[in-house]
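Contributing new records

If you add data, match the layout below exactly. Sequence lines come first and carry their own label; structure lines follow with theirs. Keep one chain per record. Anything else will be rejected by the validation script.
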Amino acid sequence: MMAKEIVPPTGELPDAVFDPARLAAVAASGLLDSSPEGTFDDLAQLALVITGAQKAFFTVADGRRSFWKSSIGMDPAAGRENDIRDSPCHILIGTGAPLIAEDAATDPRISHLADVDALGIGAWAGYPVVSPDGYVLGGFCVVDKDARPFTPEQTQALRTLARSVSSEIALRQALRQARASAEASAALARTLQDSLLPPRLPDTPGLDVAAVHLPADATGAAGAEVVGDFYDLFRTSGKTWAALMGDVCGKGIDAAKVTALARYTVRAEATQHARPSTVLHRLHQAMADQRVSDRFLTAALATFRPAGCGIVGRYASAGHPPALIRRADGTVEQLHAAGILLSPLLPADQDHHEETAFQLYPGDALLLYTDGITEARSADRGPLFGEERLARALAATVGCDATETLDRLWREASEHAGGYAVDDTALMLLRVTPQP
């Protein structure tokens, strides 16, 4: 159905506000005039904790108004919307870019807007929220009553939270589509699975990186359900990076919910806490507080930075299989860090996760994986591939780049299992580029 044409109100607004395709995307989101929800309110509340601001909003805008899906710090009597001409949200729609106004009263982009006085805006920082097909639906922002700067860590966290809102919208729409069309369930599940993984790994200075997410059935017949194996690699701040590997118990919608919560929580918390054990503890608290599902989660998190010709880092685990380090000479070491798995059913008031320091030199590699590869077993119930076979296979990859290494590991596990693995598998390898 085509969106109803809206005549622009008096005053100049960007043409993008009235784009019929954008208005159709707003309608398809199903968010306009809907009730507040804990998922979005939690993200807005987290934005306040991170930035120290007094108000946080997630807004969805059509051609007439800016609707506050979340409005933390506002008096409920103020209502849940305002005229789009009065809100900075229309600037996000017009530019598709962030808007940081550290002194709203003097910033020519927003100083003339009615909201500056009506909402007591001293400083404003907002990021676009986009639909799955790229149209700006509205914005995710924080408001401070006084003019003030926002640190790079705070703006990066806001960017991450805005992306999390966009991902939640994409997740919901994909799930609605999956329910509406049983014939397309397998394809949609795979699309949803891909939305829970980074589309590509970022370029990481000094490292050759690769990651794969592989289905349990090598013939490709499976895939009608979303599984809980996931990974992520991202910069936290400055020259520090984080590599995450996780495995949610079970499959389906609940697994997808826990995966989404884990990814956006770790990304947000890692910008605020340098210790990976602290980040895992904060994730445990988020799982207990938000209770999106009773599914448990194992995870491994490594944070690292350049040091000389290699990297130094710290590793923490939440009940996850130990990471492996393959040295340039073929020696393989296990990287252990004791820690309980993460579950909303377990107490989250104490930090039960240890850390282990590590260092990689040119030619060394760090392997993070889920237990699908070690539990690969043939249909006749023969022995598992196991951690020892995985270590031997990894030792034999000296001289291989990251992509070839993962290909060889999976091929050996698949051959051991007769072409069939009992569980889905995620693998990620960080290899320090060898020196000439």
